[in-house]
Amino acid sequence: MAFLLVIIPLYLWGLVMNQSGQEVVQKQISESMASRVHFYLTSLETELTRLTRLKLEYVNDDDLLLLATVPNQLNDYERTRALLSAKSKLYLLKSSSPFVENVKLYIPSLDRSINANNFDSAMPPEELEDILNPAHMKSPIFGMGEKLLMSGVYPDAVYAGRPPVLAIEIQLSRPEILRSLSSMAEGEGGGALWMDTGGQWQIASGVEDSLLAAFGEALRGELLNDSGESGQYRLESAGIDYFGASEFSPLLGTTLAVFVPAETVLEPLNKHRNWIWGESLVALLLAVVFSYWIYRFIHKPMRRLITSFRRVEMGDLSVRLYHGNQDEFNYVYNHFNHMLERIQELIHEVYEQQIRSQQSELKQLQSQINPHFFYNTFFILQGLVRMREHEVAERMLHHLSGYFQFITRSGAEQVSLLAEMKHAWSYVEIQNIRFAGTVTAELEPIPQGWEASMVPRLIVQPLIENAYAHGLENKLAEGMLRVTFREEGADRLVIGVEDNGESLDDGELDALRRTLALAEEAMEMTGILNVHRRLQLNYGPAFGIEVSRSELGGLKVLLMIRREEGRQP
């Protein structure tokens, strides 16, 4: 589309220039036709003016007037010689112009006519009447049937009704006029027309009878230019468009016109226009082919690359691109695939580092058995044995053995939530024996369906241990420890551990919150921070630990996990 938007203005500019050129050519053709009409009309005027002058000289010739006025005073020999001389002069007039077909001299006193081609004994009455018609004598040319005639009389007093002494008739050559008109027509289908403005006669060449009336009417109508200037126009007849040029001759009282079919005149231009349309179609085809080539070899591979980048942006690193051509896109695709492979390697390395870090933190947490708790437990156990509290001592040994068994078994990194809570409850039972009823522990049952969910090892017991160590250690009576569960949606569980210790102030609580927020940057790892880090490594940043002040008065720790079904090791 961008290619076409650039090409179309240039193409339209070319069409406008071609149209302008076509109009110029049409104007030049019309001017050429008008110039040709003017040339031929001028030639006719020159020739017919010369004939008019010779006509006047003949009717005033002394020898002819002598023959016409006193024929009876001449003997037969003189009369015969005068007739032969007149005939010779008429023949000379006829031969002086190709436009003259015949010349006749009418002598009323002899009641006969002299013909340049032969001898006539008498002129037909209708022909004599046309010659002596005052209207015809005023007109340079008049028609009589198929003939075009020029006439002259002596004396001019005939206009007053007096009979003439001498009358001359010049018959113009219709074939020669038609030949001249034919030479004016240009190209196949062209025609020329010569007519008087009164519509008494007309000579046409190359114009069919069906079109002659239309052309004559057009010339006598609004297209007729009486000013003597060239008239150029276009007219339509019988569904055909014509170029026309005409000129009126005031001297002859006639109009000369030439008509050429527009299709014939404009045929070279039409061919040129057809070539332009053909070139346009080829250009459009090339634009389509070029656009398809751009789409296939540039746009389509680029779109595949962008789509692949979007998939990578969504976290899909399994995308691979392959290109069959050995071009720039093949190079880009190969490096794109290499980049994804390298990213996967780096992610795998980081993931392994996180797993190793989680394992090391678990090992560290497992190794962090509080010596004070260890010593106190065995000291209490020793006291129970000495006081022969065998049942309590046996219960103490049962919970202690389960506690150390869970701590020292390092093969599994994840356990079921039920196993994790049993271990935490074993620790609570040991502490209950140790504190001898000064601390009351409340443990809610695990919500249905969560017992088999797999969780990281040692995530609840360190929080309970922290509650005893920092919140309930100095409690002499009425100590309270509470472990609760709250489901958030189908796959999220919040485990709460809270106490009613009195030693926590707001400053320590804010410091603990900041430590959890900067867990990744912390160098020293405590129990709560260790659990928080491992939960985020396992579930993501949306999970972990949040701390606040409990309604009981002490610290409240909320531990958030996600449901992950698995088989308990």
Describe the structure.
A six-stranded antiparallel sheet has the order 3-2-1-6-5-4, with helices on both faces. The protein is 53% helix and 19% strand. Residues 222-229 have low confidence and may be disordered. The protein is rod-shaped. With 569 residues, the chain is α+β, with helices and mostly antiparallel strands. 27% of the residues are buried.
Structural class: alpha+beta
Specify the overall morphology: rod-shaped
Which stretches are poorly predicted, pLDDT < 50 over at least 5 residues?
A: 222-229
> What would you report as the Rg, rounded to the nearest angstrom?
65 Å
Kindly estimate the percentage of residues that lie in beta strands according to DSSP: 15-25%
**Helix proportion:** 40-55%
Subcellular location: Cell membrane
InterPro entries: Bact_2-comp_sensor_kinase (IPR050640), HAMP_dom (IPR003660), HATPase_C_sf (IPR036890), Sig_transdc_His_kin_internal (IPR010559)
GO molecular function, one term: kinase activity
Membrane topology: Multi-pass membrane protein
